[in-house]
Amino acid sequence: MIKEQTLNSFSLFILKSTNFLLKIESQIPKYVGFLYIMMFSFFFSIGSMFVKLLTGVPMYQQMHFSSLVSLCLCILTEPAEKVPKDPKTYKLLLQRGIMGALGCILSYKIVYLLPLSIGSLFFLISPLWIGILGKIFYNEVFGLFHFFFILVSLCGFLLIIQPEFLFENNGLAIENYDKKTFICGIIVGIIASFIGPLVFLTIRSLRGKVGVVMVLYYFNLLSVFVGALGTFFDKVVPMKIMEILLIILSGFFFYLGHVVRNRALYLEKPFMVGLGSYLQLIVSYFFDIFIFGMQLNRLATVGCGVVVVSSIVLFYFDNIRK
What is the mean pLDDT of the chain? Predict the structure, then answer.
């Protein structure tokens, strides 16, 4: 009885939240995309913060249970929509699920194979790839104006992460890395830099065909399977109550982040949504400063300002041109 009341309360909460957001969309249609970008940046940052606290749980085990939580939320919020309406839509959903799961694995692999600052660069160029591929294959609008301001944001991001091959810092030098491992990491990074844009453009192609939760449903379904398979060949560790709670919270906020980002991709240009990864890093830095006690130097502070200002300018003038 209590369980059923809890599920009904959650479904009611989701319904009211959806209606509220749809009302906002009708009132400020030009700028709701930017609102969604800010929202999913915040949600993903919170989810990542919980993952960062799961130091004793293996990667695939995290992926499996976090995706399982998100999958259950998808079933709970949209229990009626499970089967695509046509074969093309079904293929696009499977494509999104497979590439999304592959992207998750490659993201973890980059962390293990490359210095963090270099690995981050492959994800920084995603908005550029999204814009270029979107223009070639989907006739999305992407001109010199967009290209310039994305480059400005990229420069701001370099000031934030300060890779060791451009800045003198105490980071791990490239020379200390095994050559074969480093080359393998570069290859994985190049592949991963294409996977993200293809996922974004695939979601964009599903606009008007299925709901945003359905798109997430197939991604979670594949991620649960991949996580279970990886756990089978890796290892399983018993989790404490606090770790289980962190898994549930990370799955919940990743669910919110994916749903809102999918909606943003339905409403806004994919490369603009890709810029949300820059804003997400800035939000994550604030969590690192206030929660984990990390110090942000002056160059990184300037970089945060450059990223925020260039993103706002790009979004504002792009909407004026509509």
Answer: 76
Burial pattern 84-97, b for ≥16 Cβ within 10 A else e, equals: beeeebeebbebbb
Cα 138 to Cα 134: distance, rounded to the nearest angstrom = 5
Q: 233-244 b/e with 16+ CB inside 10 Å = b?
A: eeeeeebeeebe
Distance CA 202, CA 199 (A): 5
The confidence score (pLDDT) of residue 171 equals: 41
Tell me, yes or no, whether 5 lies in a domain.
no
Residue 100: inside a domain:
yes
Model confidence at 31: pLDDT above 50: yes
With respect to residue 226, please indicate whether it lies within any of the assigned structural domains.
Answer: yes
Is 10 a member of any domain? no
Determine the average pLDDT of the residues in 269-281. Answer: 75
* Mean local confidence (pLDDT), 29-46: 81
pLDDT at 161: 62
Q: How confident is the model at residue 177 (pLDDT cuts 50, 70, 90)?
A: low
Q: Going by C-beta distance under 8 Å and a sequence separation of 6 or more, which residues neighbour residue 78?
A: 211, 213, 214, 217
Nearest to 261 by CA among 24, 11, 84, 41: 41
* CA–CA separation, 307 and 158 (whole Å): 10
Q: How far apart are alpha carbons 310 and 102 in whole angstroms?
A: 31
Mean pLDDT of 48-53: 79
Q: pTM for the full model?
A: 0.78
Residue 111 confidence (pLDDT) above 50: yes
Q: Provide the residue range defining the domain that includes 62.
A: 30-320
Is the alpha carbon torsion for 215, 220, 221, 222 positive or negative? Answer: positive
Spell out the residues 6+ positions from residue 145 whose beta carbon is closer than 8 angstroms to its own: 314, 317, 318
- Give the chain's domain count: 1
DSSP string for residues in 253-271 = HHHHHHHHHHHHHHHS-HH
